[in-house]
Amino acid sequence: MAIVLEERVDRLEALLGQFIVSTNAMMIRSEFDIVAVSDKYVLVNETKSMPKIDYINEFIEMLPQFKEFFPEYQDRIVLPIFSSLYLPEEIVQ
Length: 93
Prior knowledge:
Blueprint: E1 13-23, E2 28-37, E3 41-47, H1 53-62, H2 66-69, E4 77-83, H3 89-92
Parallel strand pairs: 3-4
Antiparallel strand pairs: 1-2, 2-3
């Protein structure tokens, strides 16, 4: 499924690198490889060199917690991206 961003993005703030965030209230820790922010969207990227179904499932399970780690983006639409240089056919299916 492809998502096309049709709005013109005047400002895109890209936070590159690995972000390890935690919250004391929940005692949960998570990391994000890239977080890119525009006025309407937040792109959350997870990159793996050796992708596995378990990694994808963990990423999907983490997504509902993203806005708890970054409350400043409550009003934005989260666009998740799971990436790798190579995705085997069994993972794409």
